[in-house]
Amino acid sequence: MAKRRPYAPDGEAPRKRPRVVHEAPTFEEIASARQLMQLLAFDQDLQKARHGLQSFKVLLDKLNDPDHKNPDDAALLRSYLVSTRPRNDNAGAEDDEGETDPLYLPDIMDTWEFAARMNNDNVMSSVPVVLALLIRYLSHVLDMAPICLGICRTLLRRRQLELIARNLSADKGKEFVISPTLRMLREAITFDGGAIARPLFRARNFTYRSLARNMSIKFLGEGVEDVKRTSARTNAVRFFLASLAFLHPEAKAELLSQREVVGSLTKTIKDDPPYLVYDILSTLREHVLKDKKLPRSARIKTFNAATLIRLAGLYTYAHDGIAGAKRDDSSHSNKLSVSDTAHQLLLHVCTSSNIGVLRDQTGYYPQGVEPNAGAATTTVTTVSSSSNREPDEDLQLDAGLDRIVWMDKFADEVPVFNFALADLLPNLRPWSSTRQSELLISIFQAAPELVAWYYIERKNFTFEPKISATWVGYAAMLFNTILVEIPDYFGHKSAYARVPPPTSVTVDNILPRPLSQKILSRCLTHKSKLIPFFAIRLLAVSMEKLRSALRMHREAAQKHPLESLWTESERRVIDEFCRRCPPMKEVINAYRAAADSDLLYREAASRVLRLYYEVVPQVALTSKFDVSSYLFAVIRQVDGHKGSAEDKVVKLMELENLLTIAGYSPGMQWFSKAKGLAASPFAALLKVYTEATGDLALDKIRDVLDFVAREQQLLLSEPTGQARATSVGLAALVGSLKPRGEDNDGADADNEKRSLLTDPVWAFVDNCVVRCANGPIKYIEMMYELTDGVAAFDPLTMAIAEQMKFVVVNADPETSRQLAQFLRYYLQLCRGDEAGLVPIWAMVVNDMKRVSKAPVHLEETLRKPIPSTVVNQATLSKSKESSKRTGAGNQISNSNHKADDGRGNLFNERSLEGLLDITPPRVFDSSALSKWATRPADDLVDDGHAAAVIGLLMADDATVRRAALVNLTNMAARIRESTYDEKDQVWLLLSELIESTKGWMTDKDTADRPVPSHIVSFTCHALDVLRNPLHCLYAKVNTFLTAGPVWRMRAFPLVNDIVHDGPSEDDSYYAEISWLLSYLLDSLRTPADIEFFRSRRLFEAILSVASNPYMRIPLRRQILRMVCRVSDIAGGSTTLITRSGIVSWLTALEATQATASSNNRQQPTNRTYGVPAGVEVPDEGDEARIVPALLKRLWDSCDHDRVEQWSVHGVQESIGV
């Protein structure tokens, strides 16, 4: 092919398009206003004109740059503008062009117009650049504001508007012409808070020409555009956003009604730099969503489906954190990322009904359904033949759900009101993003109609089980979808409709379409542990939601009792749910296959099985599930549990579920010993409930025990009008079997849980309940024979009394003592009155005499009075009319305990000790003198052996005290020679205790008395502090130890340092007070301790500490425990009343609690700050019952004669006795 000739034939111009070369403009430094005027003077030489404009631009760049700003340049510009300012003589008069506004900068305007005539793009671009910079500078100079306003008005003249429109409509390739013009318009509209915004918008045919096109011009460079060289789209968007900020609502609504402009705003938002995206989102939120004067229709047009989809695309925004895309002039720093900012905006737009995107909908009733009208239609044809009926009689007729034409219409398609949100949802990827999942669930909560529609439309949504992040995301999304609450009245307004919602829609909300029976069965049988666990959780929440839906159906049926539509719908919902959920045998197999170590999985599976029985019993009862073996296994695991407390809580939850299943199962055998179980299931369960800690919710276990005991006639039913959650008999059995630290005989502490195999009391109780359950008629007849036909007590009481003589025949003294103690407690707390229990008591004593080998010790123990702490437990369940038994010799003493009345009736099932959670003082065993010798030095402190020996210094026997002192001396020497980390501090503590004790024992006045309890208590608690260098009192304890070698035995160590001095650390005050109160509580044991407290005025100091209004509830509860402990000591109540003003303090506390309770009802407050995690926070409402009970207890245990003489009957009036 021949080479193309460079020139056309006949010497014409070349056919090639000439290369466009943009030469860099020249400039010169401007030194005076005259020079600037000469440079900007109109000249037809556009090269020279461009030179002058470029020189002016350089000057304005310096003025707009704070780092290079020069006062001389500012003065020069001021002089130029003043000299070229139009005269005021022509203000208001029309010029040659018919314009009334004066013409500012005429030379520049003439140059712009001439350049347009000559098609010189360089000058047409330079003029807007100069004007934009000039307006930006003048907008910050207050006294130049009139000139700047005149320049802006000059731009609104006809000729200038045509030039602006020409620049804006230039070719897309001429961004260097378009961008400066947009910047100039933005500076003009933002000047002085939008002073010319209205006239600028009135000229929108010129100023807003090609705006949608300019906003659609893509940035063609690599990466993200530089903030200093913004593209035409960026400038167009910023001009549009400035218009939204400064235009009045009517103009703003008209601007937003332009579909092309709104669409162009977010068309390429994913490719915009971060600062521009922030500006778009912020402006839409502040000036569109929050503008209450903006019409609702404008917001709807702005946030249409296309806009929502594009904003949702910002979840995958890729330009966050790019340095070149950051704005240097941003007035605020964005702490959130672009995706988070867009997420917040979408949440607000999609879930707020006042914006307009979220439309009113009818919940589970699809669009076009009129439930009340549908019912009327079905009944009209039926009653048309009976014209004499009243209008309301059609309610008695029921055509059934089959006659409602739309009831089965929505199985494959559900019309919705929220079409914009419906277009958005398919574009979300909630399985791959937590924020998108949150947006989806929030939309479901705001518009429940979309749940069924979404999963019907997503036909490609598969839930085939496989281990992948996508499947886990699907599972989490489905789980959150099921958790969406059912709308009130199923979405109908104000009340239940006469016709229920379509069954398919209801079930789709309870169990979404992807969770079919086939899929769930595969998930349950999957080899991995994760997938079956997710499937179990999905079934659990779906059944809970099904229960709520059925409850609402029953409520609606009560509202329309003459129609059966809701009842029929309830049956349909259950049937449809059962067709979709897996068979119960699949869940049973999954539960059987779970290992014992999978605690969460086993608990969740047992909960699902329980829900089968409770929600869909027709399915559960057809499945063969023998729960007994699993129940026995869990009982054994709970009984022998040695793991963490959290694991035990989970096991107890599993046990509760199995107990519920056992209650529903008709074949459960409660009183037959299974293989591998030490006792009957009833006794084993009773032991679990009896020995459970106070922080566990075991109400279900209690209810099951009570139900089984009444059904098997172990206990008699409560009299009419006195029914309660727990019968008196069960409460007595539990109270008498609870572990205790000591009994009235001074036996050793035994806080460890007792085994069913080795404990004689539990073996005896198990034997009695089994015998009574197998033959209740026998014991009922024996009771009637003994009481002349009166049901004075429970059959179980008769069985215990009858079997006691057979147990004690070969019993050793310790076993007899334990059985006697149990019997004393049980007879004190059991059901029955004084007259009814006297024959039982006589029967037991006579039987003991007939048994030749029965120890005399048994009868002597039965005659002893019950401790006060046990007598008060009788208020757990005993009725108000039950009185304490009295008698001589073989009857229980009640000299200090009266029947419950007045304030005592404030308790139903929790006694004062139960509310205060009082534990008996620790009893120290003399066997500790020999146990510590074989232990390493570390265990002496950490395992409490040292504290056990220290406690023996309080023994009543002087020999034991001296032996303890010798052992402490040897222990201190051994610890000092060991490698224990804190050996020096522990040795110093023990040495000072030894020296102080020696002085106490050698003093003739104190040699025969035990070491004061507060010294022993302080030493034991100080050992715990020294073990932990991070303890808040570590510094104070060490300071005390270094203060001197001997302690003052009548003084209380560290009390003044903690109460009156500041804490060691800023946030440790309440922790120090808690430690102090614990140590003082353990110091209260004998009347001598009360005297020490009184002489040191400690009671007053403690009560003043408790008067702190910011005192935490657990700390104030500790002080109330101290008051209760003092009332148990002889003379303690009298001392508190007469010497410490305890009655006035408690009365004031009661009034304060009443005021605080009323305030909390109006404005709840959080009083649990500072309480460690996992610690049960006491209920403030309990104090309203504790304080009156304490007042009653103080009065009952004090010296009435002395108190009445001291107070002149004032105490009685305060207490109300």
- What is the 3D shape? extended
- What percent strand? under 5%
In helices, the fraction of residues equals 55-70%
**Helix vs. strand class:** mainly alpha
| CATH architectural type of the domain at 23-82 and 101-218 and 228-246 | Alpha Horseshoe
Which stretches are low in confidence, meaning pLDDT under 50 for 5 or more residues running? 328-333, 374-398, 720-725, 741-753, 864-910, 1160-1178
What would CATH call the class of the domain at 23-82 and 101-218 and 228-246? Mainly Alpha
Report on the biggest sheet.
Answer: none
Helix run count: 60
Domain URB1 C-terminal: 948-1145
Domain URB1 N-terminal: 105-474
Biased composition (Polar residues): 1154-1168
Region (Disordered): 1-20, 874-904, 1154-1175
What does the model show?
This is Nucleolar pre-ribosomal-associated protein 1 C-terminal domain-containing protein. Pfam families: HEAT_URB1, NopRA1, Npa1. Residues 1-20, 874-904, 1154-1175 are annotated as: Disordered. Residues 105-474 form the URB1 N-terminal domain. With 1217 residues, the chain is mostly helical. Among the domains are: 23-82 and 101-218 and 228-246, Leucine-rich Repeat Variant, CATH 1.25.10; 248-318 and 336-350; 695-716 and 726-737 and 756-861, no CATH class; 921-1063, no CATH class; 1084-1155 and 1178-1216. Helix content is 57%, strand content 0%. It is extended, with a radius of gyration of 44 Å. The model is unreliable at 328-333, 374-398, 720-725, 741-753, 864-910 and 1160-1178 (pLDDT under 50).
